[in-house]
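batch_manifest entry 22 of 60
target: Acetolactate synthase isozyme 1 small subunit
source organism: Salmonella enterica subsp. arizonae
requested by: lab member K.T.
priority: normal
notes from requester: please return tokens only, no post-processing; we will run our own comparison against the previous entry in this batch. if the run fails, retry once and flag.
--- input ---
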Amino acid sequence: MQKQSHENVILELTVRNHPGVMTHVCGLFARRAFNVEGILCLPIQGSDQSRIWLLVNDDQRLEQMISQIDKLEDVAKVVRKPVRSHHVQ
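--- output ---
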């Protein structure tokens, strides 16, 4: 059996900034055995929100993961972006 390779994509999440929000997001990935290649989280200046960037594999489960992330109480927005066009802002 040949292993399929998948491109990486970035999920940009806007979340409420409070202790435990990263645990909720990462726990969702862990429970579904979905690997996260990289994580960056920064507070949004002048706001009670943070932005989380997740580098993940673009495989057949990703759309379902995005749907599940969007249902989390602390997540205000999820945007899927290709790696090549993304700059941290």
